[in-house]
Design goal:
Blueprint: E1 11-15, E2 34-35, E3 38-40, E4 44-49, E5 58-62, E6 67-70, E7 82-87, E8 94-102, E9 105-106, E10 110-115, E11 119-121, E12 133-134, E13 139-145, E14 153-159, E15 164-170, H1 172-175, E16 179-186, E17 192-196, E18 205-209, E19 214-224, E20 240-246, E21 250-255, E22 267-272, E23 280-281, E24 284-285, E25 291-294, E26 303-306, E27 312-314, E28 325-326, E29 331-336, E30 344-350, E31 355-361, E32 371-376, E33 382-386, E34 397-401, E35 406-414, E36 424-431, E37 436-440, E38 444-448, E39 454-462, E40 471-476, E41 482-484, E42 487-489, E43 498-505, E44 511-514, E45 516-521, E46 528-529, E47 533-534, E48 552-553, E49 557-561
Parallel strand pairs: 3-10, 11-13, 12-14, 27-29, 28-30, 38-49
Antiparallel strand pairs: 1-5, 2-4, 4-7, 5-8, 6-7, 8-9, 8-10, 13-20, 14-19, 15-18, 15-20, 16-17, 16-19, 21-22, 22-23, 24-25, 25-26, 29-36, 30-35, 31-34, 31-36, 32-33, 32-35, 37-39, 39-43, 40-42, 40-45, 41-43, 44-49, 45-46, 47-48
């Protein structure tokens, strides 16, 4: 249902930096995190890295247009790790990726978030109510860090009776911060009125309506995302977060949850403090061409939704009727388990021999539903039931061959019979199609010119039902003097599950840029995929009951340097 990802074009901002220590050994950039990790549209932000920007000259690649990055030619003493980001007035809000590189190599990519609200830096001391940092509403995004073990940050806001405050923290999920954050709302007496730990996976959000006029406090602290034996609140320089506090419009999800561009119709927004003119919005396709962006200057946040290959319909009251809501295959439906124990039912007609894939996306989209599906025939006989598609993956999927002509019924519910405002899902019923995906072991590679070849292993995942076609895997966009022969992955041969690409460079070649690997089915040239790679240092293994998969991105990088 989702379109194929592609490598985004590079937008490079180059800044030549004079070395303060010409005798020092040249070094590549090394960056674990950025602080602050974002900024407001139209503003200039001074950002620091935790390690080093590397030896001059240094350039910066970004995953999409909208950012101009400048590194001072002669940084002041103590500011050697700082640079500025000018966010264009026309930039789209969202998650951008930055990579620093020089002649010696490149850093791993790191996230930078562009938002719509005014920004404010967290200022210590702010550990208790007496020293709570004042924040001005209707909206602000605070860039903070829980810098040491036991650290607690506290912020104060003034609310009128009946005002709804959204306190939403971004840390572990988009920034890769190794923290499992908690939020609390506290009154002037120090009483905890609300507390939240996990909303968007490990990142908390509280929606609070003030019971009376007064000053209220938002407190945040954290535990490690990877649990250990300590029982204190955790903290470190890498515990970076962005905390949005707003009484303005804020969205949680859209109806439908996916968008078919050919329909060119707005989607409904579901959230809080939404005025009538912001209850619908027309999405725009993102640079990746696989998602649509929902954003507006008056919104306190933004949302990306997947693109669909078929028009998306909404669940109706018929889904609660005995017969169920009638669908025509192929179908993509957005539904919601509004109440505990609710079951949504959909019926459709299929023919003997049809091979269909039933898929429910919700958990991986950031919603709490643990999808559970059941397939029945016309007589009510249970044919198949599916909970989790695989271990640690909580979205249901079923590939099924239809045994006879007739009408069938599919039920969708929550595995533990929960329900509520955020229990939304995207159901697709499509003809089963064989497909494949690619993955590399690293997200960046270095080749020494004139030296031995660089081997890049590409893992081939022939998805169920097994993809039988030969797949040619090659590298595009290489500079003159660099060669790499395509390799074909063939079923029942050594190359079935993985191939090795060999890159060679002549002695005088120097290069820095995206590594553009692609796999193409030799039978159907329209089936094209680019590999992803796990981003190291930003995807901690979360040893919990409901972990989320490591972050994988298609932004591979190649450095070719001299001996």
């Amino acid at each position: 249902m989702l379109s194929t990802a592609r490598i985004l074009p590079a937008v490079v901002s180059i800044a030549l930096v004079s070395s303060l220590f010409p005798q020092a050994k040249a070094a590549p950039p090394s960056v674990n995190y950025l602080n602050p990790a974002g900024g407001q549209i139209g503003q200039q932000v001074e950002v620091s890295v935790d390690k080093t920007l590397g030896t001059a000259p240094v350039s910066v690649w970004t995953s999409a247009p909208g950012l101009t990055v400048t590194i001072p030619e002669k940084p002041a003493k103590g500011k050697e790790k700082q640079f500025t980001v000018q966010i264009d007035a026309a930039a789209k809000p969202g998650l951008y990726w930055l990579r620093f590189h020089n002649a010696e190599g490149a850093s791993e990519i790191r996230p930078f978030i562009v938002g719509t609200l005014p920004e404010q830096a967290e200022a210590e001391p702010n550990e208790d109510l007496e020293h709570a940092q004042k924040c001005e509403l209707p909206g602000v995004t605070i860039n903070g860090v829980l810098a040491k073990s036991g650290d607690v940050d506290t912020f104060q806001v003034k609310l009128k009776k009946g005002q709804t405050l959204i306190a939403s923290q971004t840390a572990n999920e988009q920034l890769g911060s190794p923290m499992d954050g908690l939020l609390q709302i506290i009154n002037h007496r120090g009483t905890v009125l609300e507390q939240m730990e996990d909303t968007l996976w490990f990142d908390p959000r509280i929606v609070f309506t003030a019971p009376e006029d007064g000053t209220y406090y938002v407190r945040t602290f954290a535990f490690p995302a990877d649990p250990n034996s300590t029982i204190r609140f955790a903290g470190a320089a890498s515990y970076i977060y962005r905390l949005t506090l707003t009484t303005g419009p804020f969205i949680d999800h859209s109806l439908p949850l996916a968008w078919h561009p050919s329909t060119a119709t707005p989607v409904a927004l579901e959230g809080w403090n939404l005025p009538d003119d912001l209850k619908t919005l027309l999405p725009t396709v993102t640079e990746s061409k696989e998602q649509a962006l929902l954003s507006h200057p008056r919104l306190g946040n933004w949302l990306t939704i997947p693109l669909s290959t078929t028009p998306v319909v909404l669940e109706t009251k018929e889904s609660q009727a005995e017969k169920g809501q009638l669908l025509t295959i192929p179908a993509t439906v957005t539904g919601k388990i509004t109440e505990p124990k609710e079951i949504d039912s959909f019926r459709f007609t299929a023919k003997k021999g049809d091979k269909l894939t039933f898929k429910v996306d919700t958990y991986m989209l950031g919603y709490p539903l643990d999808a559970y599906i059941k397939l029945f025939d016309a007589k009510g006989k249970l044919l198949k039931e599916v909970d989790d598609a695989r271990r640690n993956y909580y979205d249901a999927q079923l590939d099924y061959g239809i045994p006879a002509d007739g009408e069938y019924r599919l039920e969708v519910t929550d595995r533990f019979q929960y329900g509520g405002f955020r229990y939304v899902y995207l159901l697709s019923i499509q003809p089963t199609e064989a497909d494949f995906s690619l993955q590399t072991t690293e997200e960046q590679y270095t080749l020494t010119a004139g030296d031995k070849p660089l081997e890049i292993e590409v893992t081939v995942n022939r998805q169920s039902p097994r993809f039988n076609d030969d797949i040619e895997i090659s590298v595009a966009g290489l500079p003159a003097g660099v060669t790499c022969e395509p390799v074909v992955s063939k079923l029942k041969e050594k190359t079935e599950k993985s191939v090795k690409l060999k890159l060679e460079a002549k002695a005088d070649v120097v290069f820095q840029g995206p590594l553009e690997i692609k796999g193409v089915s030799l039978k159907d040239k329209t089936q094209v995929h680019t590999p992803t790679a796990v981003i190291k240092g930003i995807s901690p293994k979360r040893k919990t009951a409901r972990p989320k998969a490591d972050l994988e991105l298609p932004y591979l990088w190649l450095t070719i340097k001299k001996k």
